[in-house]
Amino acid sequence: MDEVASQFITANETALRLAVALLLGALIGLERGWVAREQKSGERIAGIRTHALVGLLGGIAALLAERLIAWAFPLLFLAVAAIGLVAWRARVSEYRDYSITGLIGLLLTFCFGAIAVAIDLTLATACAVITAVILDNKREIHGLLGKLQAHELDAGLKLLLITVVMLPLLPNQGMGPGEALNPYQIWWMVVLIASISFVGYFAIRVGGPEKGILFTGLFAGLSSSTALTLHFARQSRHNQEVQAMLAAGILLACGTMFPRILIYAAVVSPGLLPRLLLPVTVMGALLYAPALYFWRTRHRALKLDRPALIQNPLELRTALLFGALLALIMLLGEWLREWLGEAGIYLLAATSGLADVDAITLSLTRMSLGRIDPSTAVLGIVIAAAVNNLVKAGLAAGFGTRRLGQRVALPMLASLLAGLVLAWLV
């Protein structure tokens, strides 16, 4: 009785998997049929019926390969490929359409049917849905490709290089003095900062100058708030009537640093996040609030150029320099911690904050996992952020007008004092 029940369950499961293989083929066929809906019956190489049957055939081929003969799947796959090639060849001679996307979709449909029956239903379904989406968005994908610039494609390829090629090759173990250096984790942090810069760059690229200073300032903080500060400071000398708006853009860009700090902490050292949340949130709010005030009181239609993004956000040289800086800071942090204790960490944070906040933030969040007290890491991060924003306030005052410098410097000072007090209390 148990054997009969087992066979019944197995048969039902097989029937369900074959049904899914059929439906996945029908899904892709639905998209293919919709694209060729204007053509008469018989003029299409493969529509909804053909794709549904090919999906089912893929499932049957997997069953035959598993239970009858191992050659069943490759032979049937080659048969489908041959039939598709014959049909494609006949169509090319008449319509001069050299695209093989439909043929590849047909072969994928066969494979998805086999995956649904022999491997995993969820995987087959996900792949089929993604394939249908890609096939359905031909115009949008080609449009994005037409807008893509050479250095942006280069940036995307370099992001893949440092992520999927270089990262897995690095050893995941401590090295150097006190085992302070972990090559895998250092490079993983490089990937993290590079990815955020990549997203920020394209946020500005897609938004465009027509979205105004508010949008540009908010998202420029992801890629280069220093570049935006210099750009808007120069703009203030030629557009004095919109200085309040330019100050709002600078404050928004500088304030965007603080959500980034929280993201780093959440990813690298989640236990540090509750301690960082209050001081970092308050520091960001004290920059966002006056920025929004300036925006609301002086809003008008503006057509200023966005900050020039002439620098590739993912230059490999820049990524390597960041990794070297991060490793140096971690070594100095370990040395200063042993020599001066907490005072050495604070000195390092203040010095690093003159040029960059990301490296010291990632270093301290990493060190908070066991090398330093979490409260020391929090105060060090706040010191670095405060010093970095003071440098930007100095740039605004030095390269911009006096009025712009005042509008930027006062909120910066308030943010600095509040952050230091709250970090000290935490």
Structure, explained:
With 426 residues, this protein is mainly α. It folds into 2 domains: 2-144, no CATH class; 149-425, no CATH class. Helix content is 79%, strand content 0%. The protein has 18 helices and no strands. It has helices at residues 2-35, 48-67, 72-95, 101-118, 121-136, 138-147, 150-165, 183-207, 212-223, 225-238, 243-255, 257-268, 273-298, 316-340, 342-353, 358-367, 374-399, 402-425. Helix 1 (2-35) runs antiparallel to helix 2 (48-67) and helix 13 runs parallel beside helix 17. It is elongated and about 75 Å long. Residues 300-310 have low confidence and may be disordered. Keywords: Membrane, Transmembrane, Transmembrane helix. Residues 18-142 form the MgtC/SapB/SrpB/YhiD N-terminal domain. The chain crosses the membrane at residues 15-34, 46-65, 71-90, 102-135, 155-174, 186-206, 212-233, 245-267, 273-295, 316-333, 345-365, 377-396, 408-425. InterPro entries: DUF4010 (IPR025105), MgtC_SapB_SrpB_YhiD_N (IPR049177). Residues 191-400 form the DUF4010 domain.
